[in-house]
Predict the structure.
Amino acid sequence: MTEKFAISVKSLIKQYGKFTAVDGISFKVKSGEIFSLLGPNGAGKTTIVEIIECLKKPTKGEVEVFGINIRDLKKQINIKRKIGVMPQNFNAFDWLTVKENLEYFKNIYSSNKSVVKLIEDIGLDGKTDALYKTLSGGMKQRLGIAISLINEPELLFLDEPTAGLDPQARRDTWNLIRKLKEQGKTIFLTTHYMEEAQELSDRILIIINGKIVTDGSPNKLIEEFGGKKLIILRNCKESLLENHSLKYEINFKGEVQIPFENNEHLFKILNIFTDIPDIEIEIKKPDLNEVFLNLTGKRMTAEGLVK
Ligand SMILES: Nc1ncnc2c1ncn2[C@@H]1O[C@H](COP(=O)(O)OP(=O)(O)OP(=O)(O)O)[C@@H](O)[C@H]1O
Ligand SMILES: [Mg+2]
């Protein structure tokens, strides 16, 4: 295994008693990338993350972080020094301010990081002296990210960093994560939000019940498993489609769906309809939701997997 991989996991198995939570998983994370572990509740994401963070022991398999085997207890400290961790359902001290919470963790790590600068970097400047318990959900999560940065880690683990946040707070957190990537950090994200994985990740590993479903860049997965790109036409009489040798279907809403291959093909089809008034045109490209549906026959929702 080479050094350019921040993480290397080989045939990882984790059993809790007789229950197998992680069932033979292998993957590598390159330095500098945002890598997402995507899966529904109970898929095994936190278990995998906590093993890589040296918090849990694997039942079987090999895990290396920065080329160091996590079973090598003497060298584990070299891993811990270089990683930052924001656990799932993170919580700080309610009755300490943002600054006091950060100073607490700074002392634990004997870090030289400037707390003021850190507060600025994560966009909590206006809240330096606010008690943790008075922060909004998004601000609390961002303080969690700030705490994980206190030891200036190369590799950051964020376990469901936007769970329960509203769309704006989620977007703010995404921007912060992108900024951290630009600073050269490797980011290991776990999420059950499709959109989050698609927006942020260089690579995604989809898991269900402790097993890999597939992996790849968002674009590759969508290209490979997303299905058809469609032009959707509303208020379009079927007679307009005759004489153009178009493949099309009418969906249950009465909309015309025309599949297209690439931009050239798309423009050629759209040209047919340029002069026709009242037609409403929508271009629909598949996203990760379709990838997941096509691979598993199920949709991943906040309530879990649904058929
Ligand atoms: N300490 C434990 N003892 C027994 N079973 C456990 C333990 N920790 C986790 N599990 C089980 O292992 C499976 C994987 O759990 P894990 O927390 O890794 O999933 P997850 O993908 O992080 O889920 P979520 O999206 O809900 O956070 C679940 O079925 C869970 O109940
Ligand atoms: Mg979890």
User: Anything to note?
Assistant: The chain has a mean pLDDT of 93.
